[in-house]
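Need tokens for this chain, all 231 residues.
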Amino acid sequence: MTLLSELQPAIAAAIDSLGGKMTKGVEDLYYLYASRHINIAADAFILLRRDHRVDGARLLVRPALETMLRLRAVRAKPHLLYRVLFGEALESDKWLGGVAKRHGVPYTRVCDRDVWQAFKTRCASQFGAEKLEDIPLSSYDAAAAIGIETYYDSHYRAYCQYTHGALEAVSGNLDELTDPEDTRVMLQSAMTALEALVDMGADCPQMGSFHERFIEVSNQKPQKLVRHKAT
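Here are the structure tokens for all 231 residues:
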């Protein structure tokens, strides 16, 4: 928690330091907004944990984890950004298209819009048309792209239980397994966000120190969480 509490304001400062700088590639805005999303989750997680609201803080872990998986996948293989946004386009059609239909409002599918075609053309120019697949990038696909399928099977599946309100999770039966991992997942997500921002040119004088401490903490055995009642 000590390291996470230092990383979070560093991420915020790194985001601010990118103001006014030109993006180099189509993926840079995704890096920026994904990192910002992780930072928001980390900030709220820290506040809740300081108030000993462990269970409430846990609900922020999966959003950060899911964003982290996609961010790492796109950083490793930038062309996967197209699949990320293709999947989001399909979901938008399901949601907004359904709303439009109920209200009798004309609706154009996202992938049929000029702005999407311009995006696809830019991706083809930057990554190569042969790498663009009209297939959504699932969280498992993202994990597989960076070779951490086992992490998906353990951590991602575990936190899905809380997100979906599974009885075993909401009854507290999984707490012994997840309590020691909450902060470690948030820390890994925060570090991923900061690394992405720094690679984009963001300012972070402490990056070397943060990286060393992150490796040290990651190699340590998870500490048992002692739950306290809020005062």
